[in-house]
Write a structure and sequence with these properties.
two-stranded antiparallel sheet, 11 helices, binds zinc ion
Amino acid sequence: MNVYQCALNAETQTILCFVFAAIGIDCVLIFIAVTVRYAKAKAYFRDCKTGFVEDNKALIERCNQYGNSLYSKYQEFRAVVVQLGLEGECSCSSAAVSNVASDPIKFLIKHSKVQENDECLSLLVRCAKYTKAINVFYGQINEIRRRLESGFPRWVVNGCRLDTMTQEVVQTYAYTRILMYPRFVFSYVSPAGRNRRTETIVMNEAVFEGIWSALSSNMSKSAHIRKARSAMTPDLREAIKKRDNYTCKLCGNSVYVEPNLLLEVDHIIPVSKGGRTEASNLQTLCWRCNRTKGNKEMT
Ligand SMILES: [Zn+2]
């Protein structure tokens, strides 16, 4: 019994040896084939590279210039983004995380350090310009990749890899790993720490512009409101009441009927909706009508 078992084992070992040897030989053959193919692809690309660079000179040069210029201003850009508090992670409520996507601009303004002033606006313009330039740079890189991919045979692109090929024709290609859009992450962690939800905003040109226009429209709105309020002088108020004969324009009640009636001067188009403080936009209302008018912007 023992002898028979030994014989079987020896036979199995021999078969296994053959199988392994066969696999080993295959591996070596595949390795050689891949190496030869890779070397051939590399040689092909090396020979044709100069021609490609020559044919696409303008685009490649522009791409290099863009990359270098962006790279030289990168630290400055990051510093501005940090100053505005528009990068990194902020912890907020679960509800905020779910609502960020629907109105990212509103939440970014609330959770960053941006303010309604001219300095902040000009910094936002700089960020928008910089991120727009990043976008152009990436567009140029992609165009070069596309041209490489369509200009060389498939086996060359497969053997050399598109990334390596691009890197060899565009000097600034390495900057693509550095020049990236900042990210702002809204995160919520439950009290026990078991739940964690995040929403990431990529700070690209559109986002910086969105913040800029929201802030500047708020600023012009508050400037308008300040102006409208200061224009409403006691003299103007009295002049409007006199013009309207001390009579409410809505209910017709007047000081002649009710001597102690409190009359107020109302903006027909509310200041909050852009209405101005000028005679044509003003009317006399009694206090009751003014309270029920809805928008009690000015009196
Ligand atoms: Zn009235």
